[in-house]
Amino acid sequence: MREDKVILGFEEIRRAFPDAVLSDSYKYILIPRFPLPRQFNKPFTPLLIKINSDYQAPETYVDRELRVNGNRSNHLAESLTEDYMLERGWVKLCHQVNWSSNNTLVDYVLMIIDYLRGLNE
After folding, report:
1. What's the CA angle centered on 1, arms 25 and 24, to 5 degrees?
2. What strands, in cross-sheet order, belong to the sheet with 90-93?
3. Which residues of the chain have pLDDT under 50?
4. I need a labelling partner for 115 at 20 to 30 A (CA). Which of 35, 86, 97, 104 fits?
């Protein structure tokens, strides 16, 4: 994703999440306290967004200890998470989004919110 597009998207995200941080490389956005729906074992998780090219959807990582309705979820996929991320306490959120180069980072965060709301297993 182009640097200017990342910066604009990050500025919008910071309006909703003032404690969000953008990495110096413009490759990661960290939202330290992302609110979760009731089916999760915690009210918040750190949420890390790995930014890819315009043509590839970003990737999302959450707290490795998250559970859905008291159970591990196949959608919090340790088997698909890189070892270095697991070692740092992250797990990849396994989901598919309808991504196009016209999408913004705000669009992506809204997709994540909707996905997490509907996650029950």
Report:
1. 10
2. 21-22, 28-35, 44-50, 59-63, 90-93, 76-77
3. none
4. 86
